[in-house]
Write a structure and sequence with these properties.
alpha+beta; about 20% helix; single chain
Amino acid sequence: MKAYPVLSTRSGKAVANQYILDGNNCKTFQSYDSVIATYDYNTMTLTFGEDYNRSRTTSKYLNKFLQDELSIHGKTAQQLIDAGHYDRSNGANIHVRFDASL
């Protein structure tokens, strides 16, 4: 698994304690030691962890992860969880769920 820092949209520099993990056909956004969200390419499932709305900073970089990594725009994590899916314009739907054990 490869880990790389989230980059600031303003400065382009690495943001402290915010990471993207890439491997095993999954992409994961991690803030500090908490898994915030994971996308499984095999099952096309986006799973949010218990701390997805921990702080404004976590939410800011979670939204960046959703936009940059999954091309999900204009939806909050709560809206995605409530809907249970995200319909992409290309017809490929993403299943969305919440898992407090992440």
